[in-house]
Amino acid sequence: MTWTLFVAFLAKTIKAASIYIFGSTGEIVTEKSGHLNMGIPGIMFMGALGGILGENIWLTASGNNLNPFMILFMPIIFAMLFAALGGLLFSFFTVTLRCNHNVTGLTLTTFGVGLSSYFIGLIKNDSISKAGLAMQSMVKFDWGDNWFGSIFLSQSFLTYFAIVVAIAASLIISRTKLGLNLRACGENPAAADAAGINVDRYRYLATIIGAAIAGLGGMALELDLLKGFYNAKDAVDSFGWLCLSLVIFSMWKPSICIGASFIFGAAQQLKYYLELSSAQQQIFSLLPYVLTILVLIITSVFNHKNTQAPAGLGVTYFREDR
Amino acid sequence: MTRTETRKHFKMPIHVVKKLDLSKKSYWTIKVVGILIAFLLSGLLCTIFAPGTFVTYYEKMAYGIINPKNYETFMLFLETAGLLLLIAFALAPAFKMKFWNIGAEGQISIGCLVTAGIMFHMTKTGDNSNQLLVVSLCLLFSVLAGIIWALIPALFKAFFNTNETLFTLMMNYVAITLISIFISIWIKSGSQAFPSIHEGQLEDLFGMKIKYLWNLIFVVVIVALMIVYLKKTKHGYELSVVGASLNTARYVGINTKKVIIRTMILSGAICGLVGFLLVSGHEHSLNPGIANGRGFTGVLVAWLGQFEPASMVLYAVLVAMFQCGSGKAASYVGISRAEFSAIVTGMFFLIIIATEFFINYKVLVKEDSKLKPVVDKINNFFSKVGGAISRFFDKINFFKKLKKKKPKDVQQTSKESEEDK
Amino acid sequence: MDAIRFENITKTFGKKVVASNNVSFSIEKGKIYSLLGENGSGKTSLMNVLVGIYKQDSGKIYVNGEEVEINSPKDAYKYRIGMIHQHFKLVNVFTATENVLLGLTRSDYKQFAKDQEDINGPLIQNLLDQGASKNDKEVKRLRKEIKDAGRFNIKSAARRITAICDKYGFQIDPYQKVYDMSVSQKQTLEIVKSLYRGTDILILDEPTAVLTPQETKQLFNVLRNMRANGKTVIIITHKLNEVMEISDKVVVLRKGEYAGEVETKNTNEKELTNLMVGRKVDLQIKRSTPKNVENRLFINNISVTNIDGTVALDNASFVLRSGEILGVAGISGSGQKELLEAIAGLRRYHGGDIIFHNPKKEKPVTLFHHSIAKIKRMSKEGFFHDKNGNKLDVSNTPNKIVEEMVKNEEIIFYDDEIIDLKDKKPIEIRNLGIKLSFVPEDRLGMGLVGSMDIVDNMMLRSYRKGKGLFFSREKPQQLAEEIVDELEVVTPNIHTKVGKLSGGNIQKILVGREISSSPKVFMAAYPVRGLDINSSYLIYDLLNQQKERGTAVLFVGEDLDVLMALSDRILVLSQGKVAGIVDPRQVSKEDVGLLMTKGGHNND
Asked: Which residues pair with C263 in a beta bridge?
């Protein structure tokens, strides 16, 4: 690999990582409340749909006005809104209707992927790529000459935004009153309830906000990384589920998830930059899953309390069950 | 000194309590209402996407299941339902034991990979050996592969209490990615398209040329065996005790580790077999998405059917109806097929999941709430619908068997159980 | 003024269970109260009404003279009432401070800031008066402390916790994780949590049940400190010695009703017992004279340690005899559960062993109880003689011949069979041919499966019988029908899920199943708990039947009257130790009661 290629690879790795960061940060926020939302691939897809729609609505309404603020604002708001709907649906089923988390999550994935890819299919391909190109136009930094600039300073807004969101989530979860109460809901809902915390409200909000963040990942994937060249299978397989495994890999800590996302991003991108046979390329795709399994095994064998999933993860809480 | 807190809290006008005693009749009534709603909504959805197609949709849906001109349509429908059912039955013992094996997709995929590998190499070497031998080899090794895939998380669960939901989930993608890797290895041209393989096709066995027939035979036999296993064998009994209460299992001296491992071996074996059927009896080819979400759908069928054979059969058939029927119907009325089928299936599941709530819980509305008349109206409507359905049940004597035994003294029992609380 | 006044509180569950019946009394401010009563006398229920977990059916609660309505624990906090439940409500992976901060509201923080200002304000003023500038380091620090107290700040909270600990004499590390804490530390944390929110009235439910005597002493010191600081403390208990030691006043409840109130210094344990138990009830439980009493089970110096390191059973020794009911008395949590589970092979014990003694002398060996390999091994060790009374060693004889000899009853025991049950699992005990039945305390959590029907529950013990993969439902079905008929189980049919039946019927099914195997040893833990009078008497009759047919019966009870009337001997457990074995025909109930609380005194 030449130096220029290496620089390009690193730049792309960071871009890919931003999607993982969005997806897994969203899922961590959700899981901290005790909700195991396996509908995250579906929700990311709904975010992607929202992003494309939002961008198209703006471009159509304004006659291709490339106002930088609106170009970013519209897809972000729409992606978060659509994905939040998915989160709302999930929490309605698991909190209000007290349904099983696994079943609801898996259904939400089927439903979300089906619904979104149907609607994305309705949108003309060139509209999608136009939206992608509009998003690309947001890269205004012109530091491309040296390696530092190419890798760190010429990323799109979304990439920086992802890191900011993850750091903010990390700080909120570990440092604030809100985060403490949230974690209590995930660890021991009965104790949280006894301390006067409204567990249901926390779970609703965490799931909806988490879904909105994850939705941004779907949008970033669609408009930023794939530049509007849409590929459903690729999106779900390599990103949606990997975000779930990233949560395990980073042991439910958003701060670790930033670093871990770079590893996953590199594993995802490396195959395009090395002269590998097709089989060797695929082995790189295998890496994240195997690493995740190893982390899962290691944490359970050593059984250290700080690296475990929230104790109440995946358990519906009903006060009268006590 | 009393600290006063003036902020008034929003008081929920409704209160949810557990339903303790639900008769079989009301259970099925709620389910049937849910299913009817799902059918209705799928038609409405179709009308939204393609206006004015409400009736056409159901018509075409029926064609998608039974086409008088082409028996294969119906066979395909049966096979879709059958494979789903088989997966659900593979998962049922694990779920019954409260081992959340959502790795069926991977266990199926790895079975597919092994079968396709054997078939591919047999075709390549041009070894026109005994068809039966090839098929048997495929069967044996795909089952073994499925077992290994299920056994790994089971061992870690039994000895280190590793979270099985996440572990099995990850194993899915390892299996799927392994398929991609092996396709790349086997197909030197670099294209991911796998050729159709002739050697080891299940249909050719004993010259039976009817498509999917062998698969159906396998389904019927294995499902029958599984029902017997779950209901009649010591193993089946042990695993339900382990699932119901670990303490009770300990009390009667059941080795829970052994039960976990044994059950997952069985679960993996059947999933591996499904992989074999999928390649040898259906696709005759291989691609990374060959399981096509069947593993996950199987999870839903098993869970929603609550591991009861009759319910699982019902749900498997219904899902297959939606998948085959709505897919066909959609393409007739000009909607993209796979996606519409996914939407409808997803919606069907969501509605059925929601009915679980009405089976397990009762909603009480506070007397003074404004919501009260609205909820009452909804209640009235559904009790009318429910009444009609239960009258129908009565008519066909659906629950005659259950009524045979006259309750001894039901009233007294319920009174006493109240007191016990 | 009274801190709390209950007026005609009635709380019922369902139609028949009356937890509190028209209870009225007052709690004076700044005193330590004991709420005394037997199990099921409604102590905990009444306090749960006070803290908003239950809602009373009728009656009023007054706090500081004002009528209040308490609907949730949060409301209770508003009136500065806190309760430490028996099951702690703590988040394991959080530190002590984090647990304390859980769920605090903005108004809580406002109050904290105010509290801190009350302390720091004068200090600042003092400094300023002494001529310190506004920007003086110390002044700034004090100002910041006030600010920090009014917001989410771990360090500030930890400081406040340390201050509370110093004030009352707790020892707690604010940064320690709950999972690293001992039970007593967790309890301390719960108390701190309550005090941190500004509790004036603290209720503790059986606080000493999980503590060692030393820890109990520490807790009592803390409670006295709290009293010195003007707080009101109510402890729910049924341990008389503790009542005498700690409380200023005692309120006694009996069967959900208010039984009386006394000043501790004017009373003694005997008077309290009488108040607690009431007039002697004539229970008319028949007790036959034991026949053919033989030693059956030797329990030699066994000890059981819990996961958290506390000693649940301490060096217990006794002999269980056939044809006799051995009652086990003791306040709950004195090691009864552990003792029974250890005997049943469900719990590891250390120290000594448990020996099963089977009168086999001059009886032929059977393949039912011993495998061929085991017979060979035993014969080498000289266990058997042949028909002529000569020593028999078959260790080198081929298996087939040994099998033939067993069938012809040619291998005969020299002596009684003695089996060491140490480290044997339940299944191994069963495979040794020892019929040991156990009715555990937790019927649906351990003895039965609530989601299975009666027939399937019958199978729990017997499903392994017979070779092959399949079980048969025939015999369990017969058994289920028999039990339903004979014990008059009220159920729609034998295919009803056990969990749907009432407590009494559930117990009949469990006891019926355990008796059906004609056990050699029969153990029952609190078999009549929650049962009505008729069902209870049926269970007593069943225990008597077992005794009469020569079973060694171990009966753990909580009602002393019943224990006194039913048992042939009573073993009294106190804090995991055997406090004594007495003959109920010769001692009084009060004597037994004193033995039950003896352990605490001995340890002082």
From this structure: C249
Per the structure, the count of domains in chain A is: 1
Q: Which domain holds residue C368?
A: 360-415
Identify the contact set of chain A against chain C, taking CB-CB distances under 8 A: 176-177, 180-181, 183-184, 187-188, 190-192, 194-197, 305-306, 308, 311
**A114 within 8 A of A206, measured Cβ to Cβ:** no
Is the domain of C21 the same as that of C119?
no
Q: How far is B250 from chain C (nearest CA, A)?
A: 7
Whether residue C92 is found in the same domain as residue C190: yes
- Say yes or no: C200 contacts chain B, CB-CB below 8 A: yes
Q: For chain B, 421 residues long, give each residue's pLDDT as a single digit of tens.
A: 333 333 344 445 566 666 666 677 778 888 888 888 888 888 888 888 777 777 888 888 888 788 777 778 888 889 899 999 999 999 999 999 988 888 999 999 999 999 998 888 877 776 566 778 888 888 999 999 999 999 999 999 999 888 888 899 889 989 998 998 888 888 877 666 777 777 667 776 766 677 788 888 899 999 999 999 988 899 999 999 998 888 899 888 888 999 999 999 999 999 999 999 998 888 888 888 888 889 999 999 998 888 888 889 999 999 998 888 887 787 777 777 777 888 888 888 889 888 888 888 777 776 666 777 777 777 777 777 777 777 777 776 655 544 444 444 434 434 333 333 3
By the 8 A CB rule, do C8 and C59 touch?
yes
Judge whether residue C23 has pLDDT over 50: yes
Separation of alpha carbons C68 and B2, rounded Å: 12
| Residue C326 in domain | yes
Domain range for A190 is 3-321
Q: Do A320 and B17 touch (CB under 8 A)?
A: yes
CB A9 within 8 A of CB A150: no
Of A109, A282, A300, the CB nearest to B181: A282
The reply to whether C286 falls in a domain is no
Give me the residue label for tokens 């039974």: B66
Q: Is residue C337 part of a domain?
A: yes
Answer yes or no: do C351 and C230 share one domain.
Answer: no
Looking at the structure, do residues C19 and C91 belong to the same domain, yes or no? yes
Closest CA to C37 of C415, C559, C466: C559
Q: Do C491 and B413 touch (CB under 8 A)?
A: yes
**Is the complex ipTM more than 0.95?**
no
CA distance B122 to B132: 12
- Looking up residue C583, the CATH number of its domain turns out to be 3.40.50.300
pTM: 0.81
Q: Among partner residues C198, C427, C449, which is closest to B245 by beta-carbon distance?
A: C449
The answer as to whether C289 is a domain residue is: no
Judge if C27 and C176 occupy the same domain.
yes
Residue C312 buriedness (CB in 10 A; 0-12 / 13-18 / 19+): buried
The domain that holds A125 is classified in CATH as 1.10.3470
Residues C519 and C594 in one domain: yes
**Cβ separation of C103 and A311 shorter than 8 Å?**
no
**Displacement of CA A198 from its chain's centroid (Å):** 26
Residues C39 and C183 in one domain: yes
**What distance in Å separates residue B232's CA from the closest CA in chain C?**
6
For residue A195, give the nearest of C103, C152, C179 by CB distance. Answer: C103
Neighbouring chains of C at 3+ CB pairs under 8 Å are A, B
C99 and C135 in a single domain? The answer is: no
Calpha distance C601→C242 (Å, rounded): 10
Question: Which of residues 170 through 229 in chain A touch B, CB cutoff 8 A?
Answer: none
pLDDT tens-digit map of C456-506: 899 888 888 777 788 888 888 999 999 888 888 888 888 888 887 777 788
Cβ pair A197:C90 closer than 8 A: no
**HSE-CB for A108 with a 13 A CA cutoff:** 33
Domain count, chain C: 4
**Token pair of C253, please?**
């409840």
CA-to-CA distance for B13 and B7, rounded, in angstroms?
18
